[in-house]
Every structure is written in structure tokens, then in C-alpha cells.
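pasting for ref. prot 1 ->
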Amino acid sequence: MNIRIFNPEHDIALASNIERFTAPHAGRQLRSDLCYLPALWADEDDVVIVDDIDFAESAYRRLKAERKPKVEFCTMEQIAHVLSSSHAPLAIDPWGWDPAIRFQLLSAGVPKESLPSKEAVQELRRLSGRQCTTAILERVRQGVESKTCGESTYLTDYDTFCSLLQNDSEMVVKAPWSSSGRGVRYFLKGEQTANALNWVRNVIRLQGGVMVEPLYNKVKDFGMEFRRDAEGRVRYLGLSLFQTQNGAYTGNILATEAVKRDMMSRYVNLAFLDEVTARLETELATLFSTLPSESALSDLRFGVDMMIVAKDDVDGFLLHPCVEINLRRTMGHVALALSPMDDAKECTMTIVYDSKRYHLRLK
């Protein structure tokens, strides 16, 4: 029996690192309004935990997707009863593992042996920190520096950060754990405000440091989605072509892999893109080798954000091969589940808010 759950507040929960975590209102509403999403990648007769069964069934029924498995929706309060009526092997599949979701499931009656240990969740948290991106980025770029860009520095001292501002350089500052642009601040030509500086000071105090990166002339956002299996192997799943606004996710292109690759060929040689994919598979498998061999971690889905950057001095583009590692499911995984089988079909997937609810829209 697979039990699936959408917990989009995951990144904020990682930053808090407490079991009895209460997500901000927007996070709770996003979880409630899009609770049915795991049904899109579920197997037949899987269980999806939702806040409101009638609402989830109605929203799922209205979604015009090519593949819509038959699933059972139940609330967190009902999960113990559902488990008691089945003797099938149990697998739990959340959007992402953090102390809060583990505690919620344990409190709801999910057996401890079906959940990752506290130690495993803490190792997942460490690997989810943006500090891990730096080492991966350096190794993936080795020997192909002329075709790529990307650098990042982890700073734990506020005064050191302030000294960088004196150089009038344009830079992006990121919290080690944050969600969808909320943990990012831009410093342009050394400009600084009291609010931005206080934010940096607080992040260093609460999370131990900040990531500092150059501000690139970005042309296009995209990403790659991956899976880590029970043997620790990392395998590529597909491209994610998405849009952002002020650092926050706004939507994905839904198309076949062939169509998406054709789009990317305008910016980067596809053979080189495949080489980067292979490098990432190897480096990420090594990075995640510190995870405990627990059955609850036998199938991890995650994504790597990338971008295409315009060259400063001549025509052409550079590939930033690892802007961020999202050690959880992403909206790119949702897009892969909804992607058409026909090369002639193409549409967009967006999340919109109509002053009452969040909606997934396919157009």
C-alpha cells in the first residue's frame, strides 16, 4: 500500500527543524487546496492523504489530465483505520521528508518502522541545505568551465558579508533552507536597505549562514528531475521547463521530452546537456551515499534547478548546471506526470490564486 501526501511547506519545515511545526497560512492553504496532486503520479488504489475528501475528489475529477489513476482519498485522522484494514506492505511517499511530516504521520498512527528514522531525516535536512550545492557545482563544471558558469560562497559571518557589499558587485543572497523565492534577497550595485541587511543578519543567526552568488544575466530557467532508488543509484527522469517571477515559481511547460529538448537546443548543445546529466547522476549518487539504508528512503524523487545565462562579451549562452538541489518532489515532477504523449500537443501548467483558493490550471 502506497500512502502519498502533498506537504509543500516542506522547505520551511526544514528551516524550522522542529517536529511540532505550524506552517504559515499560505503554506497550509496551498497544501489544502492542492492536496490531490499526488494522485497524478500514484498507482491504482493508492491512498492520498487530504484535508477534505469531498473537495479533493471534486478538484481531481475536474482536472483535465490524460492519466488519472483511481485512488482513495482519506484524511490524516482516518489513516490509522485505513491501515488497520490492510495487511499489505506499506510505503509512505510525501512531497518531502522533514521532522514535521514524520511527526504528523507517526502521531496519526503510521508505524514507526514505515517511517525514516530521526537520524535519517536530519541527514536529509543537511543534504537539502544550499551549502551542498557548492561542491556539486564545482565538480560538475570541472573541465567544462568555458561552457558553464556558476559559483557560490557560504558565509557564516555578518561582517564578512558587509565587506563584500563595498565592492559594488551585484549579488544574490540565499538562506540555506527556504521555499520558492522566499529565502532570496538581491543586492544590486552594492545597494542595501535596513530590511535586507537585517534579513541577512537574522538568517545567519537562525540558520548558521547565507549563500552568496553572483547575479547572472539569466535568459531561461529550467531543471532536471531525478530519482534515487533503493541501491543508491540516481537516474534522470526528464526536463522541467518552468517560469519564475521574482524568484517564485509560476508555471511549467507540458510537452514531450523530445519537444522540450528541441526547445533547449536553441541555447545549449544537446550532447553537452546529456554529458551534464550523466555527471549529475554520478555526483548526486556520491553526495547521497551518506543516507542510511532505510526502506522509507528507497525511492527519493528530487530536482536540480539550472539556468541559461547570456555571455557578457560575445553572443552566445552559458549553462549554469546546478543553481539549486531540491531534495524533494518539485512542480517539475507534477509536470512530468501531466506531460502529453504526443509531440504535437503542448500546454502550460500554472498555479493561480483567485482570492479564495489555489488552483492548478492547464491551458
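and prot 2 ->
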Amino acid sequence: MKIRRHYIFSGMVQGVGFRWRSEQIAKMLGISGWVRNRSDGRVEMEAQAEEEVLDNMLNLLERQSFIQIDGIESSDIPVETKSYYFSVRY
């Protein structure tokens, strides 16, 4: 069953390719949603897929070169029935 989760990532997550890598991993795993930089130096994401797929995405992000995730805040939010793609928001 699909879930949708809102994430806030802190650490070395801006200026290191986090959004680009997130988009590539999400597309590879079939995750829909979006990612964007926040003005406070953190990165915000909404991602929708099965829970184990989202867990796999997090594991892959944590193993990326140059990216250092020090904290992840997450909360479940309502599933969007018309969410098909993953994109970088500006």
C-alpha cells in the first residue's frame, strides 16, 4: 500500500547534489513527489511509494558521496491519487 511522507533533511544537504540524486533515485525506484531546498539550509521532500521503497530511498541517499544527513524529520501525510512523477522544485 502506498504512503506519502513529508521529510526535512538537515546536515550537508545543499550544494552537494542532494536534489539531483534524490530525483535520480526516486525515478529509479518509481517514487513520486518532489524535493526542494529551504532557505534555512535544509532540504524538504514529499515522497510517495510503498514504505519499504521509501526506506530504500533513504538508505541510498545516506550512502551518496558528499551528502551528509545529520537529521531527518518525517511525518505521514495524505496520499495524492494523481501523483505520478518526482521533480525538483525551485
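The two ends are 30 Å apart (CA to CA).
The mean pLDDT is 97.
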